[in-house]
């Protein structure tokens, strides 16, 4: 059951980002402390399991329920319908989010309710102001590709920014990914100068230093971030950017593992974005709409320190359109429905003249549609090349020792399309579920909403109960 305390937290009109808009000179950390530090924390407290109801106390249901996560006991009655207690929990969960025109499903609300119960122990267990934990938005792009191709999209979004960029990652080292971001920042500065504007850029990564023992958040000097180890552009190379770089590492084990980017408070990219060369198949979700405000709020809470200079978007929530910009690309609901993968593959084959976007030879696109086409050209076949060889060529892009393909060839209609157009003309419910970087052994709160174990067991337990209920109907 969701407590009255959590309900009040989620229905409060105040968030870290909304209060920062009223007083930009304050640090997000101080605002979070003033807003939520008044509540006692108990990071070793586990949310209590709901008691079993009479509807599920029969031997047949109690036996099966014992194998599932306690959080979901008694959620389904013998006739396949949610128990009265579950219905009440779902109704309360529905009151804890800003769903707009969307209607979350019962399964969504069940998982969301489980995450919300963690806020009893710590209102910031989700690393977001509770009123912004449940929201809605669209996903105009999904990327399933090597890291380099994920960062190609990041570099395009950065280059197209008009007023602010927030980029947060974990690992940072000289690499193809790092050079793509560096080139994008140089291009961003060039464009800003042409418009006679300045762009505020905030970058955070994980770097443990002796000073981290005193304060996990350490400002990085231009000499350090432009040096060999990081290789970001120096202030002289980006004269039209106001760039601030911070490292975060909570000793001993509190690695910053947040990986996302927010641009103009209109677009958020949640992804794997380590600045390194690796051979991993990575993922990215491009988000638009009110959910961007939630990720923006997480960025402020993670940053914690005062922002120098302040972000221009304080008074321009994504729910109200974000920062006023001159961009002509349709965003959010104006994007409409996306293209299917067959059309994307055919379009890539038809535009073989498009050059690959690389750090040394950048080719930035004007919009997302152009990016998708250019990326697909890279995965299209060259003369005397099979589809498998074409895909393998891209998978090996950042490797010093390429690996030969061993699988069967890719048939017609199954071409690899790393950029998947998932745009919809309508929003969907979303929940932002994260956890803080815990440093000391034993410090972590096992019941936090970002606990993989808790979430997977909770959702899987609910799913199994629903399947059993269908089978017995």
Automatic annotation (TrEMBL):
Residues 52-79 have a biased composition (Low complexity). Residues 252-279 form the PLD phosphodiesterase domain. PROSITE patterns: PLD. InterPro entries: PLipase_D/transphosphatidylase (IPR001736). GO terms for molecular function: catalytic activity. Residues 42-86 are annotated as: Disordered. This is PLD phosphodiesterase domain-containing protein. It comes from Trichoderma longibrachiatum ATCC 18648.
